[in-house]
Structure formats: C-alpha cells, structure tokens
C-alpha cells in the first residue's frame, strides 16, 4: 500500500514522518503502530526508512489492519531528545485518525528500541505493547521504571550473531523485567546479526500479535 510522507510541526521544529492509514473497509477504531527507526536512518530523507524493516513491510503490503506512523529525527539527535515530540505526534494521530487509544503499540529498531523504552517508561499508560528489535536498554532505566512497564506485553527480538549487542545483557534485562512482573518474551534468531528487521517484522505471528493487544486486555499472547 502507498505510504505517505508527512510532517508534524512541534516546538522543536518539524518532525517528518511516514504514514499509512488503516484499510478502507475498517469499521472500528484501529490499532496504531508507531515505529522508531535506528541510528543509520536518521537524517532528512524519509525514503531511507522505506528501504527495509517495518516501513518497507508496510509499504509493500496490500492492506493492513492498523494505522502506521514512523517519524524521522535529524542525524545529530536521539529519540530521548524528541520524546515529547513523539508523544505530541501520537496525540495528533489519535485526534485525526480512526485510532483506538487503548491499542497503541511502540516498535523500534536499534537506536529506536532504546527510544521506545525511554518513551514507554515515561508514559506507561499510553501503550498496549512494545516491540524492541536489536536494541540496547537505556542504563538509566531503574527498578521503578521497570515496575511501571510490568503491565505492557513486550516482544524482544535479537540476532544470535549480533556483534553490537551481547545476548547476556538482553537476557539479564529480561530477567529483571520478569522479576517485577513484566510480560516479556525474548526471541533469539540464532544465525541473525544486528540487521534482522526484515525477518522480524514480516513474521505473520508478530503481525497478528500487534493487532491482538489492548490495554483493556493485557492477557493476550501470541
């Protein structure tokens, strides 16, 4: 389906983003999947995001049962720098699109995964699910922030051959999150390196999981 290129004006300047509406035959408010890209996709050209991962999957799909948005930050910034703007964009999409605010999922790759942990820890009641792929967890995330995330189902994906990210660090974090009652699943792709996004986001089970979630019912599993 055709992905639109848009821009949202914030107090910190414009925030360009990719946008794809829900399929035309949707009769009820739809989930929203908000995607935060990795470090190498920063810049001023939204076409870069369409080359791979979740934006590419959305662009190549005939129709999808969720609204999709993927903002882009400049080369020198991190998602922590624009967290307030991401939330402002989310509010704009909820106000202007047929989006169910109880069914907002944050997905992120690499730098974007660190971003979704940061945003979700600040606003845990805004999100129905998290999908971090090939991403570090911010070291500033303490036990109180982890406890705030315990009611958000999480699917973590990592390549077994990822040279940028020790699997032990991810496993230790998963254990910490589970100890505070977190609903988290870790999927390791044994032969995968850091760049596993195409394989992860195109998986039918994950796509089904994205639309199964709601803050009104957090007991749903894949």
Automatic annotation (TrEMBL):
<keyword id="KW-0732">Signal</keyword>
<dbReference type="Pfam" id="PF02230">
    <property type="entry name" value="Abhydrolase_2"/>
</dbReference>
<dbReference type="InterPro" id="IPR029058">
    <property type="entry name" value="AB_hydrolase_fold"/>
</dbReference>
<dbReference type="InterPro" id="IPR050955">
    <property type="entry name" value="Plant_Biomass_Hydrol_Est"/>
</dbReference>
<protein>
    <submittedName>
        <fullName>Phospholipase/Carboxylesterase</fullName>
    </submittedName>
</protein>
<dbReference type="InterPro" id="IPR003140">
    <property type="entry name" value="PLipase/COase/thioEstase"/>
</dbReference>
<feature type="domain" description="Phospholipase/carboxylesterase/thioesterase">
    <location>
        <begin position="77"/>
        <end position="198"/>
    </location>
</feature>
<dbReference type="GO" id="GO:0016787">
    <property type="term" value="F:hydrolase activity"/>
</dbReference>
């Amino acid at each position: 389906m055709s992905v639109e290129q848009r821009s949202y004006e914030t107090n910190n300047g414009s925030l360009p983003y990719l946008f794809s509406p829900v399929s035309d035959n949707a009769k009820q408010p739809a989930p929203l999947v908000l995607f935060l890209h990795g470090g190498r996709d920063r810049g001023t050209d939204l076409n870069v995001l369409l080359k791979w991962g979740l934006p590419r999957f959305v662009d190549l799909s005939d129709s999808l049962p969720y609204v999709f948005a993927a903002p882009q930050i400049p080369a020198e910034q991190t998602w922590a720098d624009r967290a307030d703007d991401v939330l402002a964009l989310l509010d704009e999409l909820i106000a202007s699109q047929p989006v169910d605010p109880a069914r907002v999922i944050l997905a992120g790759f690499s730098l974007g995964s660190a971003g979704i942990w940061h945003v979700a820890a600040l606003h845990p009641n805004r999100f129905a699910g998290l999908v971090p792929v090939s991403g570090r967890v911010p070291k500033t995330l303490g036990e109180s922030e982890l406890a705030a995330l315990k009611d958000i189902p999480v699917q973590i994906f990592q390549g077994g051959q990822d040279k940028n990210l020790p699997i032990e660090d991810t496993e230790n974090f998963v254990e910490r999150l589970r100890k505070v009652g977190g609903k988290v699943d870790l999927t390791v792709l044994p032969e995968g390196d850091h760049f596993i996004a195409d394989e992860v986001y195109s998986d039918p089970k994950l796509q089904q999981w994205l639309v199964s979630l709601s803050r009104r019912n957090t007991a749903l599993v894949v």
